[in-house]
Amino acid sequence: MKSLKLYGARDIRFEEAEKPQILDGKDVIVKIKACGICGSDISRYKKLGAVTPGQVWGHEFAGVVEQVGDQVTDLKVGDHVAGCPALIEEDDYYYRAGQPARANSLHAIGAKEPGGFAEYIKLPEKNLIKLPDDLDFDSASMIEPSTVVLHGYYRTNLSVGNDVVIVGAGGTIGLFAVQWAKIFGAKKVIAVDIDDEKLQIAQDLGADYTINSLKENVLVKVADYTDGMNADIVVEAAGTPTTASTVFGYAKKGGGVVFLGIPYADVAMERFYFEKILRSELTVWGSWSCVSAPFPGKEWATTVHFMHNNRLNTKKMITHRIPLEEGSEMFERLMERKELIGKVIMYPES
User: Fold this and answer.
1) Domains 2-142+314-347 and 147-286 share a fold
2) Using alpha carbons only, what angle is made at residue 168 by residues 162 and 172, rounded to the nearest 5 degrees?
3) Dihedral (Cα; 99, 101, 104, 107), 10-degree rounding
4) Domain Enoyl reductase (ER), which positions (predicted)?
5) Residue 48, Cβ neighbours under 10 Å: how many?
6) Does domain 2-142+314-347 have CATH number 3.40.50.80?
7) How far apart are CA 83 and CA 143, in angstroms?
8) How confident is the prediction along the chain (350 residues), in pLDDT tens digits per residue?
């Protein structure tokens, strides 16, 4: 079958891979219809390379059930599904305690086991979410990043009427954060990014104000937009050392910061920002993965519901649709940053 395999930093290859086979009664084989490039994929491609060199990569996908094991009860051939990429050993203490996102054994497909940049994938039945047949595969392949955001918001005390600042609002996670903040009932959503074109998309998706941090003083603008109070909730979605060390400055006294981005580097903080945590008595929430109990969690059912009812807009987020064989070239284009590239959807079928 066709696939994209990651061998090392900036080394991804379009190659043939062995088609998966049913080995366990709970196994399900899915024919992949659409798969997406994640922001974490871009960082790993650029900086870290493969967990397992030569592994089929990718973890965002949707497709159609092609074959099921003899112990599968809730899925049948022809069902439309999205994949939860979190693989966890069921005897893991945190999994058994109903805290799967904290499981020591948690890892994602595309690391040690084959991922979603391929024509087919095999997963346990519990990792597949049945979809309405009329939910398009492009949107369905983006359910996973939405669940990452929703998992993070569930960690916070976000409520109706709050003001929310989203740093790194132009990426997939940031754009979902904008939309979910509005669904949660946020009064003002302030989008922060370094790209005006992406900020325009954030505004189109519901952001009330936008700030280009390369051109404007974010501390001043956030205070202006919130009548000097700053935000109830700040979302760090950029995943850079700079943004991770400065987001505390945008939260109001008694507010909180939730971290969704992964810096992939050491984070150093000026005293001014660190003291914001103390002097403003901030709450800091770490958020990891996209799952809760009962596995895979309400993040998934909730996303499917709001996506199916057109409350989550994925169309404005997608800028490129390409065949899988052009994936290697696309990753290099993402490195060059010479053009606006938002969400990229790839299609294994020609």
Assistant:
1) no
2) 95
3) 150
4) 8-346
5) 13
6) no
7) 9
8) 999 999 999 999 999 999 999 999 999 999 999 999 999 999 999 998 999 999 999 999 999 999 999 999 999 999 999 999 999 999 999 999 999 999 999 999 999 999 999 999 999 999 999 999 999 999 999 999 999 999 999 999 999 999 999 999 999 999 999 999 999 999 999 999 999 999 999 999 999 999 999 999 999 999 999 999 999 999 999 999 999 999 999 999 999 999 999 998 999 999 999 999 999 999 999 999 999 999 999 999 999 999 999 999 999 999 999 999 999 999 999 999 899 999 999 999 86
Q: Does pTM top 0.90 for this prediction?
A: yes
Spatial distance between the Cα atoms of 217 and 62, rounded to a whole number of angstroms: 41
Domain residues of the chain, as ranges?
A: 2-142+314-347, 147-286
- How far is the CA of 277 from the CAs of 247, 257, 273, in angstroms? 10, 9, 7
Residues 6+ apart with CB under 8 A from 278: none
CATH topology (fold) of 147-286: Rossmann fold (3.40.50)
